[in-house]
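Quick illustration for those who missed Monday's session on complexes.
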Amino acid sequence: MRGVLLGYRGTGKSSVGRHLAGLLGVPFIDTARRIEARAGRPVAAIFRNEGEARFREYEREAIVSLPAGDAVIATGGGAVCDAVNVRHLRAGSFCILLTASVEAICRRIAGSGRPPLTALPPEDEVRAMIGKRRQAYRAAADCCVDTTDLAPAEAAATIARILAEGTVRPAEAETGLAALRVTGAAGESLAGIEQLQRRPTRLYGILGFPSRHSKSPGMYNQLFARYGIDGFYAGFESPDPAAVIGALERLDYRGLSVTIPHKTAVIPLLDRLDEDAAAIGAVNTIVRCGGETTGSNTDWLGVRRPVEDLAGGSAVLLGAGGAAAAAAYALVDLDMDVLVLARTKEKAEALATRFHCRAGALHEGERLDADLVVHATPVGMEPDASSLLAAAQLPEGCTVFDLVYTPPETPLLREARRAGCRTIPGTEMFVHQACEQFALFTGIRIPPQEIREMIA
Ligand code: NAP
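Prediction with NAP bound:
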């Protein structure tokens, strides 16, 4: 068993880690001691004399060269902010985030001799740093243990039980499984979920209606295997997101992809929303850690990433539904001058008002004028073989990004090619949003090409 302890300074990683290693009968490795051995001086002296940037280099060297095999590993508080560290720490390990109240942390780190990271008073610094690293901690952890009121030996015993039995006690798992069976949502995934409830393996999945034909379970389970993550990704198909999420909470699920038609309906079911999801008004990613759920949106990054080279230019956005909202947010974030065109003028105007862009109606045969055309209606989606625009309507030399991805070569993309435009297929939105979602689920950043090859 290889357990990795993550968390801010003063949450007990070293003291709990030593006890845990004793309980499990495995070596204890403190990355701070490995850094000191490499640098030939204490961590506090590295910070003081060489600065934080140099400390982070030592830290990365210490983490990528960790010996393989059973161990308990205690990491530095900022180690999770580096995706390379996270990839190495997570491979073949179960990662436990230790948390504690700000007061407990300040009490424990008082007099450590480490120079402050900011000019703030100690409690404010701890609060600010934890806030800044919150997403990274929650992404990299498989589970979370609050050590505020626990002695190191008690925290170690709690973690040893989780490593042996999983994060859900057997009676809770039975109740959760019974509730999940009632929803009928797990379908073919149910057998896999039943098997994993007594092991630490963490549960992820996709929730939609329909979602049975989603490529996500195959893709995520391959990624978990490739990166040594102890996770299982299931498919959940139901018209009732509250019932499914309620059952999954009892099974201590770790993360969910959310798809049509639940991206807005799940919002009231969550503890918090990140800034982007709140602005777009839709959630496609739920991350759950320590019993708290956060809703995020990675769809907008799926639109943003492939067109970042057009930042500051002009764009026409076709459609005014959910995908168009994510696209408008992305294009405005790229400082583009955006014109929203939709068949229902009021809807185009409402979307344009929300994201501070211009609106208009879509007139038949009209020639557009922009650097980028983003298509966000279902026109051209199988089995529909029509295109909203003909080649003659497309501006010369523009880029056409069709968010529709079934078929991969849509009628609009064929028209765009005829007009000599650069084309971006809808699969690129899926690829980039999936890279971002995997990072929120695991803290690991993967190259888009890996996803392209998996869904090809
Ligand atoms: P939505 O919320 O239902 O919005 C659809 C929009 O298209 C609405 O503005 C609607 O106008 C308009 N529309 C529908 N039929 C039309 C027609 N025949 N002519 C002109 N406009 C029409 O749907 P959505 O969630 O935004 O999805 C839109 C498309 O994006 C889907 O085809 C989906 O495949 C694609 N998508 C792709 C990805 C990806 O990863 N690539 C992700 C999400 C969505 P009214 O309001 O007037 O009906």
